[in-house]
Write a structure and sequence with these properties.
The chain has 7 helices and 7 strands, in the order E-H-E-H-E-H-E-H-E-H-E-H-H-E. It is an alpha/beta fold. Helix 1 packs across helix 7, helix 3 packs parallel to helix 4 (109-133) and helix 4 runs parallel beside helix 5 (156-177). The N and C termini lie far apart (40 Å). The structure holds ligand 0WD. Ligand 0WD binds at residues 13, 15, 18-21, 40, 44, 63-66, 91-94, 118, 143-145, 188, 190-191, 193-196.
Length: 254
């Protein structure tokens, strides 16, 4: 029993127990969802397997979104296991660390393309596969950041990518709405994860949020997880194309 009883979904983007995707997977599993997880490469497999065991999730294989054959393989495995799915969580982003500091204007063509492919297009690539398995409707969720809306120090090309990701949420919501598939994003406040450690001056950004956010603190992956649970569950059945801020309110002052 529970909010997510009978629902099955794929969670992509767990690197370790600090990952935002892990916060969402924990919340969904605790509410009764059955979960499948992917990992990126063998190094992360060793971290993801014990986490999967903790929540009774299935590990459905390696997925590097720059290699479409690995996306197809993961969805083939999910189809074999379950036949259909009810939700996906996409918590994947990447940019060259050297360009998450200094000036946006210095972004290279190569890194721009790579950042857009991994951090933006991959959500659409995953949506294409997931649509086919969401035969009873469904919920798709991705993760974004305030740097999409306003210039944040050091966020640079990733801010441009998140703006495109947020636009894709709206276009996908329209395309998939008639099939009762909802598409939303959480705009999370800064959280110290592996990916965040690549951003210049990240500790300063955390401190700045603590001083200035209405709640006078930062947020946890469990808090993002609970809003994720809402967006994945039928509680949010009237919500699509939405960017929900889980940032201790920072966006109203920042
Ligand atoms: O402050 C933060 N941490 C925020 C993160 C604030 C707001 C949004 N976000 C977003 C990130 O931009 C990302 O979209 O949340 C999402 C999840 O990020 P995270 O939880 O902060 O970071 P992490 O635990 O590192 O997970 C991201 C994972 C990768 O980890 P690493 O650090 O190894 O790059 O994304 C995956 C990978 O597991 N990933 C890929 N997966 C498949 N194919 C790829 C790829 N090519 N590249 C990265």
């Amino acid at each position: 029993t529970g909010l997510m009883a009978g629902k099955r979904g794929l969670v992509m983007g767990i690197a370790n127990n600090r990952s935002i995707a892990w916060g969402i997977a924990k919340a969904a599993a605790a509410a009764g969802a059955e979960i499948a997880l992917t990992y990126q490469g063998d190094a992360l497999r060793k971290r993801v397997e014990p986490l999967a065991a903790e929540i009774g999730a299935k590990v459905v294989g390696h997925c590097d979104v720059t290699d479409a054959t690995t996306i197809d393989a993961v969805f083939a495995e999910v189809e074999r296991l379950w036949g259909k799915i009810d939700f996906i969580v996409h918590a994947i982003a990447f940019s060259d660390k050297d360009q998450l500091t200094g000036r946006y204007v210095d972004t290279t063509e190569d890194n721009f393309a790579k950042t857009m492919l991994i951090s933006v297009y991959s959500f659409t690539a995953v949506a294409q596969r997931a649509e086919k398995l969401m035969t009873d409707g469904g919920s798709m969720l991705t993760l974004t950041y305030y740097g999409a809306e306003k210039v944040m120090p050091h966020y640079n090309v990733m801010g441009v990518a998140k703006a495109a990701l947020e636009a894709s949420v709206r276009y996908l919501a329209v395309d998939l709405g008639s099939r009762a598939i909802r598409v939303n994003a959480i705009s999370a406040g800064p959280i110290k994860t592996l990916a965040a450690s690549g951003i210049g001056d990240f500790r300063y950004i955390l401190r700045w949020n603590e001083y200035n956010a209405p709640l006078k603190r930062t947020v946890t992956i469990e808090e993002v997880g609970d809003t994720g649970l809402f967006l994945l569950s039928d509680l949010s059945r009237g919500v699509t194309g939405e960017i929900t801020h889980v940032d201790a309110g920072y966006h109203v002052v920042g």
